[in-house]
Design brief:
The chain is of the alpha+beta class. The chain contains 4 helices and 8 strands, in the order βαββαββαββαβ.
């Protein structure tokens, strides 16, 4: 009887519709909060460029906006690791502007780190880089679950998603 191969994919997908919903909910909450009354505030998601921009009158207000956004992202199951701060700068009208890059793919150097970590566990599995995802195959399901558990403990920029577990 042939033994069955089990597999799963490692990726860093981000559901952009859920991200849009989190931004919309955050904007609604910011608009109704008393501490944001009468000041300039803007929360802008650019899906095409995969960027997020926060604009307000001070760093404290932007921190509050970011906290609101993070809470909405958590409620929707989105990883906060998917936001990478690009720059903080002054904007027009004495405002502050923070720009964030939305990470939704595993970069090559992180893919190499993931593959090295999988090999360091010395399990009977193979990890193959397939562009923007890594496919891990093995005969023992417990080995695959061990790999998932280990990879969750790593400090990576990309938020890891485990798909197609069979």
């Amino acid at each position: 009887m042939a033994t069955k191969e089990h597999q799963f994919d490692i990726s860093a997908k981000l559901d952009m519709q859920e991200m849009k919903n989190a931004v919309i909910q955050s904007q609604k909450e910011i608009d109704t909060r008393y501490d944001f009354k009468g000041i300039s505030k803007e929360l802008d998601l650019n899906v095409g460029a995969k960027t997020l921009t926060l604009i307000s009158s001070s760093d404290n207000k932007i921190d509050a906006m970011r906290d609101i956004l993070i809470s909405k992202m958590n409620k929707r199951g989105l990883s906060i690791n998917s936001l990478e701060e690009l720059k903080k700068e002054d904007s027009s009208g004495g405002n502050r502007k923070y720009s964030y890059k939305i990470i939704d793919s595993i970069e090559k150097d992180e893919a190499k780190i993931i593959q090295t970590e999988i090999k360091s566990l010395k399990l009977k599995v193979s990890a193959v880089n397939q562009g923007d995802e890594i496919r891990v195959t093995g005969k023992n399901i417990d080995d695959l679950q061990t790999i998932m558990k280990h990879l969750k403990t790593l400090e990576l920029k990309a938020p890891l998603v485990f798909d197609n577990f069979r």
